[in-house]
Structures are given as C-alpha cells and as structure tokens.
Specification:
Helix content: 10-25%
Distance between the termini: 41 Å
Oligomer: single chain
Number of helices: 8
Structural class: alpha/beta
Low-confidence stretches: none
Number of strands: 24
Largest sheet: 6 strands, mixed
Mean pLDDT: 95
Radius of gyration: 21 Å
Shape: globular
Strand content: 25-35%
Length: 428
C-alpha cells in the first residue's frame, strides 16, 4: 500500500461564523460543532473551548485526543467501521491538520482519565501541551450507563475530528510525505540484504471500558493479525480506553504512531520494515497463551530478523508483554520491548509485574509513580471534581490554593509506551 500524507500546519485556531482553513489558521463555527455532538441523545450539553500552548490553562478529565484528518482520494473515509463504512484504508491520499487536536472532556466515566496543563511542569510531560486543543466539554444525559456515555463521547470526538479534517481537503499541504509497504514477497525482494524488521503492536483490550477498536471491531475478539502500517494512519485503530492517562494510547497516538514513523524513516537504509502485527492484551491466561503463540508464529511467518514490541497499560498486560517477548525471541527473532514502569514513588520497587531473561532489551517511558506538584492555573476546562480520585491522585491531591499533587500517571501521555514522550532511562 502507498499512502500520501499531506500535512497542513495549523498555527492558530479561532472561533468564527464560518469554519475554514485559511493561511494556517483554523476557523471553527462553534454552533456547527455543537450540532454534531448533540445529535447523539446520550449527550445533553456541549461547550467548545480552545486551549493554546503556553496559556495558564488546565484541561481535565481528558478522555481521548484526536487529530483532524480526512481522505482526499477514493470512496473510503477515515475511522472505518466506527463512524464511516467499513472500507479498507491506508492508501491514496490523506490530509492532516497538524498542530491542533480535538480533545473530549467531561464527567468522569472510569477513574483512569487524565490532566493536561498548557504551561508549567506538567506541560513538559504531555505532548498535548504543544497542540492547540479544541475541547469538547460534554455532559451526559441523566441515567445513561457508563459504556453508553463512553461510546457517545468517543464517537463525538471522531465526528468532530472528521468534520474539521474535511476543511483541509482542498487546501494545499505544507508538506506531503509518501509511505509505502509492498506485498511481502515484493518487499523482501526490494532490500534482500537488509534485516527484516516488524512491529508488534499490543492493544489494550481488557474490557470494562479498557477497549481498542480495529476497523470498528473490539480488538478483544480478534486473533493477532497483520496490517499495513499505513492503515493505522487512516484511523483503522482507535482508542476506546478509560485507562491510566500516562500510558493510554489516545487515538492521536495511533494516528501518529512514532514507532511506525521511525521504522519508515529507516526503511531501505539500514532495515527493511515489512509490516505490523497487531495483538490484544487478554484478561485470562489461556487467551494470553493463544495470542502470544499467534504473535510469535506470525513473526516467524514473516521471516523477521528483529521485532519491536510496544505495550499499552500495566500490571495484567505485563504478562502479555513478557510472553510475547519470550516466544518471539524463541523463534530466533531479536526483540526489543517498549514499556513504562510502576516502580513506586521512590523507584525502588519491581518495575513490571512479570519478567523473563529473554526480555533483555527494554525501552522505558519512565516511572508512572513519580510524584509531581502542578501549580494553580487561571483557567480550568472541564472540572476539578475528580482530581482526588483519578489514577495517580489521592485524597487531598487538590490543595486549597489550587495546586495538585499527583503521580505522573494522572498526566495524559506522560509515560507513553510508544515512546511518544520525553522521559526514559538508560542502563549503565
């Protein structure tokens, strides 16, 4: 598959009577966006607020973040099987509005939702302090169930991101980048002298609002499968997760997966990037065995020399991670895992809930239990009502002066296990 990604740099976002992209500014009609969101009767109220980098602004609790994109060529559309019909994506041309994002915000669904500060020490821990965020602050209808609310908010974010993305359909991009992965035999024949490298992409699928969707299918029901990397850039994988904010893969992370980006950058130079294997993170041991067996089998089937394995979440999924690493390495494939750590506030505890000597090449996104004090902000988008109860918070986290003392797991993207962050560690 060959995908052309046209990148349109958005330097400012302003409310206006007409929605359009003009000379690097995204103008949005607030009423049109509200109409999209309120079309779902599970949501009774929506406010649209804009948060810009460097402002004294705190956004919480954040549920998902989505980059506006649209298809320029073909009959398909992004987010297939979710808000668009089930068509294969990943080829043709797509336009993306870079530098901005849609963030869904509102009453808490689960306890694992996050905080984004647009300035201060917390801003240094999240990539979303650098984007101009179009925040959809929503209120659910009385009496609806958590999973109904989660779905309504999730789909509202996708619909608004697509609506905004289409504003860039006829805009000439600032940059066009071409990505291509050929059918396997052609791909191998093109660079026969280079090591064949694949990406094992673990998806959070533990249920009870810990869900990821592939072409609209709840990934807990799949067996490991092969995707073209470009399919991910068109929204074939989207987040439905209410998991710890620090290592949640938001939909923005999936659309901009840095492992895929980096492997493409090295493709044809020192590696042959042959494709992506997606696998789930099951709850029960037999399901973990099945998925890790299939993942290792597919690595061997592709003839990989090396594999990068990324995790989402912690605790129970640590077993999936280590089983994958052990079995893939057992096939003679050099394996690197990307994870984060829950090593206690002093960093002295065991970092992962599972381990194996074969998992000896590790990239870490940092220790999620590290404590930080976030200073007061002049403006709150959302509500501070849940600060004491989100994962990483505790009774008394919100101080009377407006400061918040939390573990960094409460900050969206702080220890992301795709490496979409600034924190890591180096062995010495």
């Amino acid at each position: 598959m060959k995908l052309e990604l046209g990148k349109i740099q958005i330097k400012d976002v302003q409310k206006a009577s007409e929605s359009k992209v003009d000379n690097g500014t995204l103008y949005i009609n607030e009423e049109e966006i509200k109409e999209i969101v309120l079309a779902d009767d599970h949501i009774v109220k929506c406010e649209v607020e804009i948060a810009k980098p460097g402002e004294s602004t705190r956004i919480t609790p954040i549920k998902d973040v989505i980059e506006p994109r649209c298809k320029v060529e073909g009959d398909c559309e992004i987010f297939p099987g979710v808000i668009s019909k089930v068509d294969r994506v990943g080829e043709g041309r797509t336009h993306a509005l870079k530098g901005c994002a849609v963030a869904t915000v509102g009453k808490i669904v689960g306890f694992q939702e996050g905080i984004v500060d647009m300035q201060g020490p917390g801003a240094e821990l999240t990539p979303f302090s650098k984007t101009i965020n179009i925040c959809l602050v929503v209120e659910p209808a009385e009496g609806i169930k958590p999973h109904q609310y989660e779905q309504a908010v999730r789909e509202a974010g996708f619909k608004v991101a697509l609506y905004l993305g289409k504003l860039g359909k006829e805009v000439e991009p600032d940059e066009v980048v071409t990505y291509e992965t050929k059918p396997l035999l052609d791909q191998i024949a093109e660079y026969p002298e280079l090591p064949k490298v694949g990406y094992v992409y673990m998806l959070q699928t533990q249920g009870l609002l810990h869900d990821t969707y592939v072409y609209g299918t709840d990934a807990k029901h799949i067996v490991p499968s092969i995707l073209y990397p470009t399919e991910v850039m068109d929204g074939a994988i989207v987040s439905g997760n209410c998991v710890s904010a620090c290592d949640k893969n938001t939909t923005y992370h999936h659309l901009n997966n840095p492992v895929i980006e980096d492997l493409y950058a090295r493709h044809g130079k020192d590696i042959n990037f042959v494709g992506v294997i997606i696998t789930n993170e099951a709850v029960y041991l037999n399901d973990k065995k099945r998925s890790s067996d299939w993942t290792a089998k597919l690595c061997r089937y592709l003839g990989l020399d090396g594999a990068i394995v990324t995790q989402e979440g912690f605790g129970n999924p640590d077993t999936d991670l280590i089983m994958n690493a052990k079995k893939i390495a057992g096939q003679g494939v050099k394996t690197v895992i990307v994870t984060d750590e829950y090593a206690g506030r002093d960093g002295a505890s065991q970092s992962l809930a599972d381990a194996d000597p074969s998992a000896d090449a590790v990239v870490t996104g940092g220790n999620a239990n590290e404590v930080i004090v976030l200073p007061p902000m002049d403006r709150i988008i959302g509500t501070l009502d849940y600060v004491d109860t989100v994962a990483g918070g505790f009774d008394g986290s919100l101080r009377e002066n407006g400061e918040i003392e939390v573990e960094i797991q409460a900050i969206t993207g702080a220890t992301n296990e795709m490496g979409f962050n600034k924190r890591t560690a180096r062995g010495v």
